UniProtKB/TrEMBL annotation:
Residues 26-184 form the Histidine kinase/HSP90-like ATPase domain. Residues 549-654 are annotated as: C. Pfam families: HATPase_c_3, HSP90. Homodimer. Belongs to the heat shock protein 90 family. This is Chaperone protein HtpG.
């Protein structure tokens, strides 16, 4: 077969450029990454050999060999693991076929600080590509276990690589030969290699040898780190193990190392990263915890091991009781796995509670990073609802920073019967929502929820400590029963400000008629203090923001009709009320007032982040309104001011 020359995936080419410049000050990590890859390859073969023992019959002892060649300035990293064929080489060494990569690339290019770049690179693991920091040419020779054909991959990391058949491949496994750049001779020195392995890879459970001949020296402990007593493990060793299992380069935010004994015996060594993994929001939602059985790697894809809302965890779970040859299908319904799942989730959540109580500022940093993922459990895991609600933190309409639900309950006003929430696309937009005006006026706190999952867990939870979680965009505001703490005189509106109930009733009746078929109802509200109107969902109807999300994702075809609420204190509503109720000649039915009704509805839709039902008609009405305002006098500022004077202009026009 002739040599194929292929192009790196665009993201790989960009990554190689950034890695070469950003990792130079920490260049020894390349050896850790290549040794880690060799360890993974051996783990995968050991598991495959349980059902196919012939794969390792000729060479049952797994190992990784580091072979320096000072004369030719080369370093070879060899393993006798699972190996790769042509397709594996192209997929593993030529592409990063994982969602989120492009976003990381963009952030990398914008990063200014070198530490920031290293942390970003660590979000998805540079792995093999780190070798180009010290090598200007890399050759990979590999033969997949159980296959006869060997393959050679080679590249200078500058945009292309070659793949060809070769007889010069190991009997099984992979040999990575680095042709080191000038000035990188230190990585052919035995003591330097030993130092790097001791520092970064001593925890690798596969023996690592310096050399390949009979006199080769084992340079690592080769015992599974999680099996050692915690008192014998240093913080540095924990960190290096975390980087090994996570393929990230940051420091772990928290670690959890425990052994469970009883009906099911297993050991856990779990870490929470300090930065978001690049694939945190990948649709597959896979966790990053490997399952071992008696120190033998089984799988990194056991969905039943941990819930998806803990997918930010990295580490290992090692069971003493599961059968070594367990299949993926058997894992799905295995009661031992379910017990491991339950125990591990409880331990993780309890540790997070301790962290939240002892180190609240550090916990807030964790919440900002992983809170949107952890909240998925509020919708998906009813058994852990109470624990997750205790851990949850929220933004508030009344306070800066993060607050808990307990904080909210302690700050509730006299007469308040619900925990009020408002969902939307961003905290900044929510703070400007007209639905908050009446609550702000009474000092009633509203939780601001801007993560997509918030629209789903709020209705599923229902209540907390006996208080209903109530969206402020749904149903009546019910603010009358809440005491604000201010004098009654300050709360009452003066006769001049207050529109008579009769006048408002007439306007409401007219708006219902004018907007028939477009809205469900019209009513006067105490919800608003500054805005003229807003849209809300009826009690029992779907929340406005949730419905919009479902429509955007094709889960709903039509919009529900909403209730238009009007503010009787607003000058526009007051003038319209006077205009409609004071007409002796059917003024309420005049075309100008009808146009004003439609403008009110469109204005309310725009504030909710939606488009008018008929944008062309909205533009025409607004143009006509401004033109009439120019005819009758100077326009007061913006189009909003023009809208606010609709009543005057409509009266003048008539």
């Amino acid at each position: 077969m002739s040599t194929e020359t292929l192009n790196f995936q665009a993201e790989v080419s960009r990554l190689l450029d950034i890695v070469a410049n950003s990792l130079y000050s920490n260049k020894e990590v390349f050896l850790r990454e290549l040794v880690s890859n060799g360890s993974d390859a051996c783990d995968r073969l050991r598991y495959a050999a349980i059902t196919q023992p012939e794969l390792v019959a000729d060479d049952p002892n797994y190992r990784i060999s580091l072979v320096p060649d000072a004369e030719n300035r080369q370093l070879t990293i060899a393993d006798n693991g699972i190996g790769m064929n042509r397709d594996d080489l192209v997929e593993n060494l030529g592409t990063i076929a994982r969602s989120g990569t492009l976003d990381v690339m963009n952030q990398l290019q914008q990063a200014q600080d070198e530490n920031e770049k290293v942390n970003l690179i660590g979000q998805f693991g540079v792995g093999f590509y780190a070798a180009f920091v010290v090598a200007d040419w890399i050759e990979v020779r590999s033969r997949k276990a159980g296959e006869s054909q060997g393959w050679r991959w080679a590249s200078d990391g500058r945009g292309t690589f070659t793949v060809e058949e070769t007889d010069d491949a190991p009997a099984r496994g992979t040999r990575v030969t680095l042709h080191l750049k000038e000035g990188e001779d230190e990585f052919t020195e035995s003591e330097r290699i030993k130092h790097v392995v001791k520092r970064h890879s001593d925890h690798i459970a596969i023996p690592i040898f310096l050399g390949e001949d009979e006199g080769a020296e084992q340079i690592n402990t080769a015992s599974a780190l999680w099996t050692r007593p915690k008192s014998e493990i240093t913080d540095e060793q924990y960190t290096e193990f975390y980087r090994h299992v996570s393929h990230q380069m940051d420091e772990p935010w928290m670690r959890l190392h425990f052994k469970a004994e009883g009906k099911v015996e297993f050991t856990c060594l779990l870490f929470i990263p300090s930065t978001k993994p690049f694939d945190l929001f990948d649709p597959q939602r896979k966790h990053g915890v490997n399952l071992y059985v008696r120190r033998v790697f089984v799988t990194d894809d056991c969905a039943e091991l941990l819930p998806a809302y803990l997918r930010f965890l990295r580490g290992v779970v090692d069971s003493e009781d599961l059968p070594l040859n367990i299949s993926r299908e058997m894992l799905q319904h295995n009661p031992m796995v379910q017990k491991i799942h339950q125990t591990t989730v409880n331990r993780v959540l309890n540790e997070l509670k301790k962290k939240a109580n002892k180190e609240p500022e550090s916990y807030q940093t964790f919440w900002e990073t992983f809170g949107p993922v952890l909240k998925e459990g509020l919708y998906e895991d009813p058994q852990q609802k109470d624990s997750l609600l205790e851990l949850a933190r929220f933004r508030s309409s009344e306070r800066d920073g993060w607050i808990s639900l307990d904080d909210y309950v302690q700050n509730m006003k006299e007469g308040q019967q619900a925990i009020y929430v408002l969902t939307g696309d961003s905290i900044e937009a929510l703070r400007k929502s007209p639905q908050l005006e009446g609550f702000k006026a009474k000092g009633v706190e509203v939780l601001l929820l801007a993560d997509p999952i918030d629209d789903f867990w709020v209705p599923s939870i229902g209540e907390y400590q006996g208080y209903t979680l109530k969206p402020v965009t749904q149903g009546a505001a019910e603010l009358d029963s809440i005491k604000s703490g201010e004098d009654d005189e300050q709360q009452e509106r003066s006769d001049e400000e207050k529109t008579s109930d009769a006048a408002i009733g007439t306007l409401v009746a007219y708006l219902k008629t004018a907007l028939e078929g477009q809205i469900k109802d019209v009513r006067s509200t105490e919800r608003l203090t500054e805005s003229a109107c807003c849209l809300v969902a009826d009690e029992g109807d779907m929340d406005i923001h949730l419905e919009r999300l479902l429509r955007q994702h094709g889960r709903m075809d039509q919009s529900s009709q909403r209730i238009l609420e009007v503010n009787p204190k607003h000058p526009l509503i007051a003038r319209l009320s006077e205009r409609v109720s004071g007409s002796d000649n059917g003024g309420g039915a005049s075309p100008e007032i009808k146009e004003a009704a439609h403008l009110l509805l469109d204005q309310a839709r725009i504030v909710e982040g939606e488009t008018p039902e008929d944008p062309a008609a909205f533009a025409r009405r607004m143009s006509d309104l401004v033109a009439k305002g120019l005819q009758t006098g100077p326009v007061q500022g913006t189009a909003t001011a023009a809208t606010a004077s609709t009543g005057d202009e409509a009266e003048a026009a008539s």
